[in-house]
Amino acid sequence: MGGILANTNTNLVSLWSFIPELIIMEGMLSIILLEIMPKRRKYIYSSTLGVIILSLVAVIYMACQSSPLSDSNPLFMGLIVADPFSFFFKIIFLISTLVIVVVSQSSVEIKDDIRAEYYFLLLVILLGMFLMVSSVNLLMIYLAIELVSIPSYILAGISKNNKSSNEASLKYVIFGSFASGLMLFGLSWLYGIAGSTDIFVIQKALVESGNSLMIFMSLLFVMVGFGYKISMVPFHYWTPDVYEGAATPVTAFFSIGPKAAGLGLLIRFFYSVFTDGSNNVLLGVDWTLIIAVLSALTMTVGNLLALYQDNIKRLLAYSSISHIGFILIGFCVLSNQALEAMLFYIFIYLFMNLGAFVVAIFVKNKVDGENIDSWKGMGFRNPLISAFMVICLVSLAGLPPTSGFVAKFYVLAELFRLESYRWLAVVAIINSVVSLYYYFRIVKSMYFLSSDEEQASLEKVESNQINKWIIIVLSVQPLIFYIYWSPLLEFIKHSLIMWGPS
User: Quick check: is 156 in a domain?
Assistant: First the structure.
C-alpha cells in the first residue's frame, strides 16, 4: 500500500512539469466537444490556436525557470524527463504547428468538412513529438514514435477524395510499419541485454557486458527506425511520394516537426546509450563512421535527385533529405560543440524551410499549380512575397548573407576543429554547389520571362494579410540570424547541460 501511495504522489508531482502536454490534451478534447455541437464549430480554429499559444507560453516559462546547474527532472517514475534539451525542441514543434494551423485556415486543400479532424490530428502528433524528445524509456520511446506515426498516416491521406493523397497515405503506412518492426526488434535486444527499459540502465549493462557485436547489431536495427523518421538514406524512399501526394500544409508540417522530433530522439538515445558518458563511443563500436557515410549518402542522393524534379513539393522533399545529411555532419563527431551546431542548424532550418513552404501554399491557392512552370512570372505578379521566397531559397542553398550559410559553417567548422572526417566536409561543399542549380530554377521561373509583353500580360495576385506577414516573419529570420545569433547559441548551450560543459 505504501508503494502505491508513493507512486501516486510521484505522479501527482510530475503533473506540474507536464502542464504543456496537459494543455495540448485539453485542446484535443475541446475540438471533439466543439465538433459535436454544430453552433460551436466555428470556435475550433481559435481554440486550436489558443491551445498552442498557451502551451508555448508554458514551455518558454519552464525553460526560463530551469537552472543550468540542475539535472533533468524525471517524470512519472522515470518514463520521461523535463529538461532544457526537450524544451528547445518543444519550442520548435509549437512554432511550426502554430504556423501550419494559421496558413491551413486559408488553404484550398483543407476542406471545411475535415478541419476538425485535421486540427485534432495535428495536436495528437504535437503531443507525440513532445514525448519523443522527452522519453528515456524504451516503452515510451516506441509509444511516442507510434503516437506520431499513426496520425501522420491518416493526415497524409486527409484529402479522402484525392487518389494521390490516398496513395501517399498507403505508402507511408507500408514503409512506416516495416521500419517500426525493425526498430522494435533492436529495442528488444537492448532489453534482453539489460533486463530493463530504462536507457541509463541499458547503457551501464552494455558497458558491463563487453559484447561489442551485440551493441553493433542492436544499434543498426534501432537506426532503421530513427532513420526512417528523419528521411535518412537509405530509409528515405517514402518521402517524395508522401510529400507530393499530401496536402501542401501537411507536407510543410512533415518537413519540420516529425523530422526535428526524430533528430532530438536520435541525439538523446545515442548519446545516452551508445557513448560512455565522456563523448566516446561504447566499447570501440565506431557508429560515428556509419553516420558519416550515411550523412554523405543522404545529402548526395537528396541533391542529385532534386535536380530532376519539376514538382515543387517533390523538389522540397529531396531538399529536406539533403539538409538532413548536412545536419547529421554534426552527429559524426562526439562533442558538445557538434551538438550545438546540429541544434543551431535545426532551428535555422525551421524558418527557411517553413518560409519556402508557406510561399508554396500561397502559389497553390492562387494558381492551383505545383510544378515549377506554375511559378512563372510570380516575381512580377507579387514582388514582395517572391522576394522573400528568394531569401528562403538563398538560405536553403547556404549562401551569405543568410543564416543558412552560418549553420553550414558551424557544422563544417567542427569537422576541421577536431580534424575528423575532412572528406565529408569536401562532399558537403560539393553538394552545396549542386543545390544552387535546383533552387535557382525556381528563381528563374519567377523572374526571367521570355519577353516584356509576357510580363505585361500577367495578372497581379495578392495574399491575405495574415499569410503575408507570416511569410515576412519567417523569411526575415535568415537575415536576422546571419547578423546576430549569439542569444540563440547561448540558449542552445543551456539546452545541452545534461552532457556537461563544452
Answer: no
Q: Is residue 179 part of a domain?
A: no
In the chain, the amino acid numbered 426 is: V
Give residue-wise pLDDT tens across range 313-342: 889 889 999 999 999 998 888 888 889 999
The residue segments making up the domain with residue 419 are 292-502
Task: Give the separation between CA 7 and CA 13, rounded to whole angstroms.
Answer: 10
Instruction: Give kind and range of the element (H or E) at residue 80.
Output: strand 80-82
Burial letters 32-56, b for 16+ CB under 10 A, else e: eebbeeeeeeeebbebbbebbebbb
Residue type at position 223 = M
Pick from 358, 399, 366, 394: which is nearest to 382 by CA? 366
pTM score above 0.85 = yes
User: 333-344: string of b/e by CB count within 10 Å (b at 16+)?
Assistant: bbbbbbbbbbbb
Give residue-wise pLDDT tens across range 257-285: 899 999 999 999 998 888 887 777 777 78
pLDDT under 50: residue ranges of the chain: 1-6, 69, 501-502
Q: Is the residue at 18 inside a domain?
A: no
Q: How many domains does the chain have?
A: 1
**Residue 94 corresponds to which amino acid?**
L
Position 71 scores a pLDDT of 53
Distance CA 462, CA 440 (A): 23
Rounded alpha-carbon distances, angstroms, from residue 31 to 48, 122, 148: 8, 11, 19
